[in-house]
Amino acid sequence: MKKLIFLAFFISLFGYSAGENKCGELEKCFSFESSVHDRDSLQRGLGIYKNYCSSCHTLRYLRWNRLQRDLDIPETVLIDDLISNENIKTSDFVTFGLPEISPIGAPDLTLRTRVRGDDWIYTYLQTFYQDTSQATGSNNLVYPGTAMAHVLIGLQGTQELDSNGKLIRLSKGALEPEEFDSAMKDLVNFLAYASEPARIERERNGIYIILFFVVFTAVMWLLYREYK
Amino acid sequence: MASKNSLMSWIDRRLPVTENLERHLTKHPVPSKVNFFYLFGALLMVVFMIQVITGIWLMMFYTNTEEGAFASVEYIMRDVEYGWLMRYMHSTGASAFFFLMYFHMFRGLLYGSYQKPKELVWLFGCFLLFLLMAEGFLGYVLPWGQMSYWAANVILSLFGAIPFIGESLQVWIQGDYVLSGATLSRFFALHVVVVPLLMIALVVFHIFALHEVGAGNPEGVDIEKYRDKTGMPLDGKPFHPYKTFGALPAIGIFFIVFFAIVYYAPTGGGYFIEKPNFEEANFLKTPEHIAPVWYYAPFYSILRAVTFGIPFLGITSKFLGFIIFAASIAILFIVPWLDRSKVQSIRYKGIFSKIAMIMFATSFITLGYLGTKPVNEIRTLIAQICTIFYFLPFILMPIYTKYEKTLEVPDRL
Questions:
Q1: Quick one: A3 exposed, middle or buried, by C-beta within 10 A (0-12, 13-18, 19+)?
Q2: Phi, psi dihedrals of residue B238, rounded to the nearest 5°
Q3: ipTM of the shown complex
Q4: What confidence category does residue B313 fall into, taking pLDDT thresholds of 50, 70 and 90?
Q5: Alpha-carbon distance B41 to B107, whole Å?
Q6: How far from the centroid of its chain's Cα atoms is residue A147's Cα?
Q7: How far is residue A222's CA from residue B249's CA, in Å, rounded to a whole number?
Q8: Which residues take part in binding heme b b562 (chain B) (predicted)?
Q9: Domain range annotation of chain A
Q10: What is the pLDDT of residue B413?
Q11: What pLDDT, in 10s, does the model give residues A19-61?
Q12: 8 Å CB contact of B74 and A110
């Protein structure tokens, strides 16, 4: 019984959240937990990153050949379509020749999901709205006054805040709302992968390590009983 | 066998291997009946080894410069084979170290493992806690993330709060007027050489002192009183194989939990590795909320709970906070001389000792919870009350342990 109490206490430690829950203007971020085990999703996410993010944001700690290996990208596709620059080697980082410190202040995205959390990034990408008072013409609920423009406007369509502070759609984008939502999930999955490529292997193999120690404990228990 | 024995006797004449193995392992008597609280010491040894081994591997790839530190940690996480495993084992190991240490010490408080003649065992243990806290702090700076930088700033500024010598002391420790690469490289040296060496020495002292006075038990019975013909206490068993094999299943269970965290929750929900630490240190950008890792949270709470100074003595609230924070650790050192009880174990102590232990444990956990949260008025008030409750059991200990009614301790286990 005492052991159970201690176990319960230990588990309850994880129940506390590290910061406050508030998500910018929102009470709470939309909840989303990334998964790095769906390769198709990661590849689609890479596509969105390449088409919409990579002109400003780097992935300074991720190498092209790591990406190739983990996402199962054919070499020709990697070199011709993704890198498409003969001066860049496949062992280089995914920076597209952008400088280390972005002149427009766009942060490096490699570890962004680890700094902000999946929920935050996912919600941030969904909650851009028209705001003429901003230089970019758009604003964000999660990060009010963000310097980033609504670059996904072509996919999502335009949104506006109503008098209650709720988002309403003004015009359609190239994607239906569900399609856009799933595209953002792909993108966050990809960024989560980029933040920790080893996570694929880690989450896949962990169970075998734990099972090994379950067997180890059982054998050691028998040994212990002999010498009780 | 003959050749082995002659080899052993050859060695034994020159180095007393057999004698010491018998003295500390195969003939060293330990109480036959103890509970799970007595396993934390063995687990601490395991964690210490994990930290040393993974630490050496990390050291091979880590760069201790302001420019290279953060990137080298990502290099370890990505390009070094199983570097991520080494790093997560090391970071989870740090949390495990404190978790086990707190239980190990709480066991000591519950069962009087500091009482005469075990004062030195307890003192060495307290020094180990102090060194572990220093080691954890130094190590946390090394990844050179935002929280490394700003948490270190908070702690180093405490030295700056000491009247008269504070500022120069802080500059001396930092090696610079601000926390910088100079600080990082000396913290690296302290983290990987100085503190671990001291810890190893103290672990040796801790164990030798323990073997001299003998391990305790939850009953507080002196097992040395009754011995059989061979001199082995009737309520004792040789340390090896009985206790060594007894610890193995516990080590197995520990590894199950440990690797479950390493593989499936390595950041511990932001408690083992804090989110802002995935952003490189930036001295122009203070994080919104600077929170310590969970294992410092109780002490950090005590530090923050002191919102007032003593102006006419020139003591600022920050310095007073530092004093009380230091006192919260220092008071543990003198526990052997605060306890005047005739009995060792909480099982035979009176009601006041029991209330005091509950008070201490509750306030410690509450302070820990509050330490990870941003401050507001109510939380500060609760932290202040808990700080008083943290100290009261120790301050009043000489009184209640002397006068409370204790139960009769049995002769045998």
A1: exposed
A2: -60, 140
A3: 0.92
A4: confident
A5: 10
A6: 20
A7: 9
A8: 90, 191
A9: 19-197, 198-228
A10: 85
A11: 456 788 898 999 999 999 999 999 999 999 999 999 999 999 9
A12: yes
Give the residue from A14, A59, A111, A200 with the most B CB atoms within 10 Å of its CB, the best one to mutate: A111
Interchain CB distance below 8 Å, B255 and A2: no
Please tell me the distance from the alpha carbon of residue B295 to that of residue B407, in angstroms, as a whole number. 36
**What is the 8-class DSSP label of residue B191?**
I
Q: Which of B255, B271, B278 sits opposite A114 (nearest CB)?
A: B278
**A198 contacts on B by Cβ (under 8 Å):** 77-78, 84
Q: In the structure, what pLDDT confidence band is assigned to residue B3 with cuts at 50, 70 and 90?
A: low
What pLDDT score was predicted for residue B289?
87
Hunting for tokens 């805040």 — which residue is that? A161
* Cis check: omega of the bond before B16, within 30 degrees of 0: no
Q: Which A residues in the span 109-148 are in contact with B, Cβ-Cβ below 8 Å?
A: 110-111, 114-117
Tell me which residue of A212, A148, A205, A156 sits closest to A179, measured CA to CA. Answer: A156
Tens-place pLDDT, residues A58-115: 999 999 999 999 999 999 999 999 999 999 999 999 998 888 888 888 999 999 999 9
Stretch (H or E) spanning A94: strand A93-94
| B342 and B406 Cβ atoms separated by less than 8 Å | yes
> Which CATH number is associated with domain B37-220+239-270?
1.20.810.10
Q: Does A62 touch chain B if contact means CB atoms closer than 8 Å? A: yes
CA atoms within 13 Å, Cβ hemisphere of B174? 21
- Rounded to whole angstroms, the Cα distance separating B291 from B303 reads 12
Q: Name the residue facing B263 among A6, A115, A202 (closest C-beta).
A: A202
Judge whether B104 is annotated as a binding position. yes
Beta-carbon separation of B245 and A224 below 8 A? yes
Q: Which tokens in the block code for residue A112?
A: 């962004």
Long-range contacts of B64-72 (CB under 8 A, 24+ apart): B64/B142, B64/B184, B64/B185, B64/B188, B65/B181, B65/B184, B65/B185, B66/B144, B66/B180, B66/B181, B66/B184, B67/B181, B69/B142, B69/B143, B69/B144, B69/B184, B70/B143, B70/B144, B70/B145, B70/B280, B70/B281, B71/A61
The answer to whether the predicted template modeling score (pTM) of the entire model surpasses 0.80 is yes
How many residues are listed for chain B in this entry? 413
Could you tell me if A159 lies within 8 Å of chain B, comparing CB atoms? Answer: no
Q: How many CB atoms lie within 10 A of CB B65?
A: 13
Answer whether B78 sits within 8 Å of A62, measured CB to CB: yes
> Nearest by CB to B246, which of A16, A209, A224?
A224
Asked if A111's CB is within 8 angstroms of B74's CB, the reply is yes
Q: Are A211 and B260 in contact (CB under 8 A)?
A: no
8 Å CB contact of B246 and A228: yes
Contact call for residues B273 and B93 (beta carbons, < 8 A):
no
A92 at interface of B, judged by CB pairs closer than 8 A: no
Cα A216 to the chain's mean position, in Å? 36
Checking if the pLDDT of B255 tops 50, the result is yes
User: Is A214 at the interface with chain B, CB within 8 A?
Assistant: yes
Residue of chain A whose Cα is closest to the Cα of B240? A227
The answer to whether the CB atoms of A227 and B246 lie below 8 A apart is yes
pLDDT for B58 equals 98
Q: Does domain A19-197 fall into CATH 2.40.160.50?
A: no
